[in-house]
């Protein structure tokens, strides 16, 4: 079957509004926001149901047409972008955006893959429940893509990654069959946990079309604090003390350097400096409780007071309202935006054992300075779960293109430190096209053979997101 004939069959299934072939219409689906990856495709297919997805996949399997599944296209590693050769169709799940069910007593929500994360958060709140996944792209990112990349975000410390928030999945397999794993059970001890094969698989094993998500009680009290700390070591010790004192009520714990804050103050309107004196490092933390209680507030304040006495903190401010809390969290958001105004920025999404974060920062900053004198590290991120965004702004006055041309070289320098400390080169962004060539290095021969065997079993013809994750 020719590609043209296959597209005619697909058009008959999804309808005229379900397929895009005009270059201008397809353009938003063929590049990612950083501009590092741009591909081509004969068509962008937008099915509106699981049945349509299954029919499209079956046609592609018979015609030998590769498929790139795509959610909100917020990938940072090129995982949702086709290659330049233009052989793959893009299969967008954006029209599959129904919330099928909310079971408040079972604390579950059943959703289709194209539902945007903010819609899930709002629906949970309307039902007096919490869906805790929260990240910068939540207004665009779709749950199918978040599941396929096992996304993280700011609340992993307390609630876990996306993998920990999924009870069941519906998946279209490479031959067009549909696996119905939409179980709402907390306990199900009947063989292999198949859903976990597809969570974090980046669409290389099957196409997630729906999911059963875990919900949680809505917090009734939230305390947000911005704390000056003398060092990353002090931040890690402060985290341990807050977790112990609060009964593990810390939901978020973000670390940022002074350079990060300086960039945000310089370039992003609305950013404030919350404390009177500068500090080399800061922590932004949030603790939540199920009931409104003066005792909870006192517990947090006492723990912070003891941190001052132990010289783990030098200053702090606690938000006195929701508006003030949002203002503090705006700093964290502004850090991401501000870096682009300082020239080229080489990004690293690093995962390190929490106890070794400070060691990583010391070793990595020294290593990149040796490789590129004048380089400006801007580390920040979810230090509570060991995830640091170790971003590296170009030296002042450097040529941006020449600097960015050294991306792979500089990242390799950082990776050497990560490997030494038993860390990971991808904490929450995935592998995609960007990091796939490192997989044989970081996985080891036995583990890598196991990964390839799973791929060969579920996608023997290699038509699902080819060239992603596994080289």
TrEMBL record:
Origin species: Azospirillum lipoferum (strain 4B)
Keyword Zinc found: no
Domain FAD-binding PCMH-type: from-to ranges: 37-218
GO molecular function: catalytic activity; FAD binding
Protein name: FAD-binding dehydrogenase
Family: Belongs to the FAD-binding oxidoreductase/transferase type 4 family.
Keywords carried by this UniProt record: FAD, Flavoprotein
GO BP annotation list: respiratory electron transport chain
Known cofactor(s): FAD
